[in-house]
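Sharing a chain and its predicted structure for anyone who wants a worked example. Both blocks are below, sequence first, C-alpha cells second.
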Amino acid sequence: MPITGEYEPSTWEFARHQVAEYEASGGTRANTLGDSGLRVIIVTMKGNRSGKIRKTPLMRVEHEGAYALVASQGGAPTHPLWYYNLVADPAAVMIQDGPEPFAVEVRELDGDERALWWERAVAAYPPYAEYQEKTERLIPVFVGTRVSA
C-alpha cells in the first residue's frame, strides 16, 4: 500500500537528483552509486517529525527478497535522520528496487542476526567496514521484508 502525504525532497542535491532520476526511469537510470556499478535502492518513509514523505537512496543489500538498510552516514558520529523515521514508524516504509516500489516492514537488528546482515552489507559495499572503524557508535542495520498485499 502506498505511503500518502506531501513529498519533501532531500536537501542534499545528489540524493534529490538520484531519487528523481531513478523514479522517472523506473529504476533504469541513477540506479548505482555514481559510476561505481554498485546498485542502490530508493527507500520511502514518513518523516517522524514532519509527517512528510521522505525518500533516500541506499546501497542495495538484498538476500532472498529481504533488504538491509544500513544507517552508516559514512561513519559519522550520529545516526542519519532517516534512522529515526524508521524507528518511529517501521510499517510505513517502501522500497523501490527496479520499476515498482513495494511495501516493507522494517526492524532493527541485533546480535547474531545483525552480524549476519552486516557481513552481507560489507560484501555488497566494502566501505561499510571503514565507516564502522571511523565511528564509536555501532552502525544500525535494519532488515526490510515485503508486506503481503
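Comments welcome. The chain is about 30% helix and 25% strand.
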